[in-house]
Structures are given as C-alpha cells and as structure tokens.
Input
Amino acid sequence: GNDLVYSYLPSYRLTDHVERLRILSTGAADAIGNTLDNTFYAGDGDNVLNGGAGNDTVSYAYATAAVDVRLTTTAFQSTGSSGSDRLINIENLAGSSFNDRLSGNDAANELAGGNGNDTLNGGLGNDTLSGGGGSDTIRFDTLLNALTNRDTITEFNVVADTIELENAIFGSLTSTGTLAAGSFRSGAGVAAADADDFILYDSASGALLYDADGNGAGAAVPFATLGGGLALSSADFLVT
Output
C-alpha cells in the first residue's frame, strides 16, 4: 500500500515500506526518507526535509497561505507561510490552495500548483508542470534544448492560463507584453510561414516550438509539449 505517518517529533526517519510523512509539529522538525518515492507534507515550522534515495516530493498542501519554494537551493529558504525549510534530495514540489511560486532545478522535476493562481518554472531539465485550478503561469527562462530541456505541461487552460517567455532566451521576441498575433502560428505539423512566425504550436502533437528566424534556414526548437487540439492563440503568451 501507500502508507502515511503523522509525526509530532522533532525528527523522524521513515522506516522501510512507508512512503509518506506529514509533519504535525508547529516547531522545528526534520524528516528523512528511505529508498522509496517519498512524499513529505511540510509543517508550519522550520523543516529539514531530506528525501534520500528515490523520486521524492515535498507538498505544501496544508499551508495556510501561499508558498514560494525553489529546488535550486539546499539551504534554508523562507517559504512565505510554512516556515523556513531546507530541501535536500527532493525532486518534486506540490503547492497549496493559494497563489504559489514553485521553481525546479536542472533535474527532471514535477511541479504541481494545486488550486490558486500559481507560477511554475521548471528550470532546466525535462520537467512536468501542472498548474491545477486557478489562473496559472508557466514560465520559461532557461537555455533551450530539445533533448534535455523540454517540459510537459498538463492541465493547460487556454482561457485562464498563461505561458511566460523571457526574451533574454527567446531573443526574437523583442517587444514585451502579450505576444504579437503575427509572431504565433498553429496547426497540425506547423512550420513558420514568414519571418515573424517565432512561436509555433503543433496542434497534432501538442508541441510548442521556438523558431528564432521564422521561415529562415534555422530549425525550430521544441521547448514544451501541451495537449493536442487546444485553441491556443498569441493571447496565451506573455513576453517579459
């Protein structure tokens, strides 16, 4: 089964065959994982959460306000509403019911926003990003690579959600704000038709691609995959 332990202790190490731990202590408390894929539910106090081996997740499902959590550091970080936490050997994050900011590192992370208007940034690596309910923002601001930095976006809502593109990376998008209509093109097996078609959505495969020179000789680079058949438009993109 998938077992859950509740702990009021200042430190708890998961025993073999136990996958999940919820910290109930409101003070400082540590959690140490085992070789399984563990999930730690962070408490209100300052936590040291060490997943150990396995593909491990820290969840802020019980936070009472929004959290801002980054996997790019293993030092203590202020989460905003759930104390100052130190995350070690953690691959994945799950947010609260509020407006969270979750950021990955250079591994293949899974970021799940939950309810609220969340901002997810996978960083490098082939990440899986799920905004959940609310009006969510998926941000891309790391060097593109079709093999090692291509994210999967699930649950994307074309009415409510936004894809944010940093023009230090997407250099042909020189104007900030909502993506210009002429810079976007979609269709099954899409390719750039003119010099301004920089962001492409393949409605058959769900691939999102960046073509720095439009219909020039340079190849388009896939940077994410959404579901196929979405009514995606330039209004779903924000250039920063």
About this structure: DSSP finds no helices and 24 strands in the chain. The chain has two domains: 1-98, 129-144+157-240. The mean pLDDT is 98.
